[in-house]
User: What shape does this take?
Amino acid sequence: MAKPKRRYICQACGSVSFRWQGQCADCGEWNTLAEEAPETVFSAKHNLSGGGRAIAFEALDAPGEVLKRKSTGLAEFDRALGGGMVPGSAVLMGGDPGIGKSTLLLQAAAKVAQAGLSAVYISGEEAAGQIRMRADRLGLAGAPIALAAATSVRDILTTLATMPPPALLVIDSIQTMHSDQIEGAPGTVSQVRASAFELIRYAKENGVALFLVGHVTKDGSIAGPRVLEHMVDVVMAFEGERSHQYRILRCLKNRFGPVDEIGVFAMEGAGLAEVGNPSMLFLSGRDTPVAGSAVFPAIEGTRPVLIEVQALIVRLASGATPRRAVVGWDSGRLAMLLAVLEARCGLNFSSAEVYLNVAGGYRLSDPAADLAVAAALISALADKPLPGDAVWFGEVSLAGEIRPVAHAPIRLRESAKLGFSSAFGPGEAGGASDGRKFTALTLLPNLVDRIMGAP
Assistant: This one.
């Protein structure tokens, strides 16, 4: 009998290697290859073409039970989920350590339990006493949550089989779970995949809304095999900076609702508080106009959020190497925008240090922010404040053109609601201004002339 080959699986990306090496050849991570049992090899006679059970097909328009969403009791959480929990769905939530994942799910479980539904919270990282201590601090000690500390998937499923299926099941975290049918320590690729599969199968068969907490790697992506993200119905990321109060629950994948929807929370002494108007959170403290500050109406899912973009230009002595520092935006995008301003508008940034910051620790990925960033840079360079009642949005091309962006009417309506009476953007957005003062810009030099020529 041939000796089985050894397999080494990367714990970061799940790639397979047949020899150990210090660095994974696929993802480049160091010291992540771990030996696992080889796969079972089936002979040709063990095929799957017979001996099974015939399945029944259904028509696409066949009548069936309509799944009704259930509220988590937190409006911002429901918004990010697309309207609430879907029975039988599996949700994977990732986030940095200490960002508040366990706190958010504990609050949601308490709200569900207080609404008369059953909620089960199983932790593999904390003892039951530690969770009770947190619940007492959050004022949730009286919530009728079924609480347990366990790591064995077999024990968890055996226990759940003896009770009515709960409306909400929280597993914190999937990396601590293990199945006795798979070799390997908890957290390995095979264990995470097998444990998640068994828990998701239970949720699908019993109509349970399952929430799995997942660890993240140093670059912010969910740890473990990428197949885990394909197995679940919803993938959510809980983001935020520890030095800032706000937290954003962002939906990255959703089979039952819109993608990129967000819910905004603020970390307070009594837990996570919902923020119904996040624009006021990111625009606070703008009483006096300052050069280098521009307001950008961003779109997160279906929600408009007004963000302040801040720029600072520092002139250097000849011969010094200028520095580029960016917080909350893509540094490559800033380099491209500076090159366009120099090549198409004749501005000189090569002998100056450029600092760009998105206020509140927010992270922008919307290409429509190009015009707001350009306005902030030009304002900082000219040392002239921008109008305090204006917003800026539009995508800038390498030719210096200002291109149209999506959801212009929504951006303008949200801006007017918060007291911004004027807007600058691409010409195609002018028809959606509803009588408000809108200035169409077609080329980036038009923006430079408007700001530089302002008194």
